[in-house]
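User: Before I run my own analysis I want an independent prediction to cross-check against. Here's the chain; please return only the structure tokens and, at the end, one sentence I can use as a sanity check.
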Amino acid sequence: MEVKILSEKFDIKDAHLLKVAKKHGAYQTLDKLFSMQPGEVIEEVKSSGLRGRGGAGFPAGVKWSFLPKDIDKPVYLTVNADESEPATFKDRFILVHDPHLLIEGIIICCYAINCHDSYIYIRGEYTTQVKVLQKAIDEAYEAGYLGENVAGQDYRLDVTVHRGGGAYVCGEETALLESIEGKKGQPRSKPPFPAVVGLYGCPTIINNVQSIASLPYIMHNGADAYKAYGTEKSAGTHLFGISGHVEKPGMYELPLGLPLLEVLDKVAGGVWKGRRLKGVIPGGSSTPVLTPEEAKTVTLDYESMAEHKTMFGSGGIVVLDETVDMVKLVENLIYFYHHESCGQCTPCREGLGWMLKIVKKLLAGEGTRADIELLVELCDNIEMKTVCVLSAACTMPVRSYLNKFRHEFEAYAIDGASASNDLHDK
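Assistant: Structure tokens:
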């Protein structure tokens, strides 16, 4: 099942160093790249079917084509390496094990969009990753892959690493731009979209680390080779971080479209300790949970997830066994999003706090069924009523737990915490 495209060098010793990376093919696409016109590169990426790997899944080449034509302003590329979604750890593997793959992808993207300055916005807590990445960038400058004459061509490209301050909301693309500009990391109202008015008021493309790191394979092997993996609408491979209650948690690169349960059983070793499956979070904490029955028919692609009323997200799969208390899980989830709210919008700033108080009240044995109904009502009144989707990243999964595991919430509401403890002991 596993494929080695993005992860090809993950198990090679010192592959983060330029001399080792070059022995295994790093930067070999540049001659081909500079023999093409920028528009040809964009069309190749469009043809590959590569979709953004940050969570939204928007076609990468199409996004690049949104840049205005004949502009007299500089174009910027910002690479989103903020990776703060709970249960997500795919990008850090690229940053630590194969940073030159990312740099090569940045060169490809920047050439295609006529960009000469790129910023990598990286999560503040990624201290090891920052050191490895910066060393790789320094090596690329010394070797002539970055700077005034990239790979000996009349083309300048500078890459700057910008560390965030540990704010989840800066994973949102416009908050990320605000942070790079030295402002408080709060999302902007859209439109205008970043492709038109982005960093420093200039046209800007924002792509995830994994999206950019996929470009060297496409450039070297062609769009058809990439499309040979995955499905018609969800092409290629993806780095899946599988965690939670499985025998073999870890990072696995797999073609899109595989059956979820087959992957969990054959790749991750199945539910641990011989226990039963209770639920699966398919794409990071912000994605609605799947029941075991739903998990039987879902496949790992954008379309199947949408059909099951959840999202592919970041590919961070969390397996929940029969011992999990869903009410306590929801408390933890709401706490995270309430803590990470930037406070700009009242529904998010205040509403998530109200939701947290209600769940705490239930867990304390002081809640009622009316409180559960109020929780549902709050979800409905908060979701999509804000500048960005942080609040929806909380309310969408919370609603899914309320709909699919309602009895656990009601057990707390009726008889207090002891009733729910009895429920989980059975």
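Sanity check: The first strand starts at residue 76 and ends at 81.
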